[in-house]
């Protein structure tokens, strides 16, 4: 299947990309591994694409002012291979390694994944569990959006029409923080049927986020509260598992691959495994 006709512009700076974006019905092109398939399916028909894959200021991972900063154009493979990520955010390393296949990891970017907000994507659960903020810029200025405010619906986010994600900032976890990402993947695409990200801080606070289960990734406050501050033992883990998915303000999903009931079951199984991993 081929796309409808479109024009192509290559931006070499963020300013160039923003100027082009403000100038008609264009879309940013990062890795193209979500956008191009959706153009082939006619779900997206932009007049022109603005290729941002060569903008050097959108690349790289650094520690800055108490944050791990992952620039939006950093590929899944670059995250996988980052020593800083392996040391400070090991569950980002785990997640990067289970995204798609080598080609997808070499081209796809974290910024593209967050902007696309596929309900089965991995990064949304990770940025939620890690208390990340998402830095965005437009011609009107820049702002930071908390990950918990970023995902607003199926394939929809708090991003404004002409905004571009520049970076994802994650507070450097205190020493002794433990993390886990557990995923039940679709056997063909490797998208998450269920993904569960857990971050356990030394003071007993636990962040829990799910992807794949609902129309968008979410933090599970009920499960977090059931287990927070407790010794992670069989009883507290069971309390979290029992509390999980209750009272959430999201619609749960079922499809040909996994019914809603099965996804809910898997979510609890993968939460338990993730809690065991950080215990
Ligand atoms: C076969 C296959 C398997 C896959 N498996 C997985 C998987 O297991 N897990 C998973 O999470 N994902 C998976 N993906 C998706 C993959 O990770 C994509 O690369 C990712 O979702 C999108 O990143 P991209 O850089 O390719 O973005 P693009 O496709 O270039 O763009 C996606 C959307 O984001 C917008 N965009 C891109 N960059 C920015 C930016 N900086 N600011 C604002 N908007 C921006 C674009 O305009 C577009 O609307 C898979 C894809 C394929 C084709």
Give the helices and strands, then pairings.
Blueprint: E1 7-10, H1 14-21, E2 26-29, H2 35-40, E3 48-51, E4 61-64, E5 67-71, H3 76-80, H4 83-88, H5 90-97, H6 102-107, H7 110-116, H8 123-129, E6 133-138, E7 141-146, H9 147-150, E8 151-153, E9 156-157, E10 164-171, E11 178-185, E12 192-200, E13 206-211, E14 218-219, H10 221-227, H11 234-243, H12 260-278
Helix pairs in contact: 10-11, 11-12
The structure holds flavin-adenine dinucleotide.
Essential attributes:
279 residues; alpha+beta; Uridine Diphospho-n-acetylenolpyruvylglucosamine Reductase, domain 2; Uridine Diphospho-n-acetylenolpyruvylglucosamine Reductase, domain 3; Enolase-like, domain 1; 3 domains; 5-stranded antiparallel sheet; 4-stranded antiparallel sheet; 14 strands; binds flavin-adenine dinucleotide; FAD-bd_PCMH
Account of the protein in words:
The chain is of the alpha+beta class and 279 residues long. The protein has 3 domains: 45 residues, Uridine Diphospho-n-acetylenolpyruvylglucosamine Reductase, domain 2, CATH 3.30.43; 114 residues, Uridine Diphospho-n-acetylenolpyruvylglucosamine Reductase, domain 3, CATH 3.30.465; 101 residues, CO dehydrogenase flavoprotein, C-terminal domain (Enolase-like, domain 1, 2-Layer Sandwich). It has a 5-stranded antiparallel sheet. α10 runs antiparallel to α11 and α11 runs antiparallel to α12. It is globular. The N and C termini lie far apart (48 Å). 44% of the residues are buried. The mean pLDDT is 96. The structure holds flavin-adenine dinucleotide. Flavin-adenine dinucleotide binds next to β2, α2, α7 and β10.
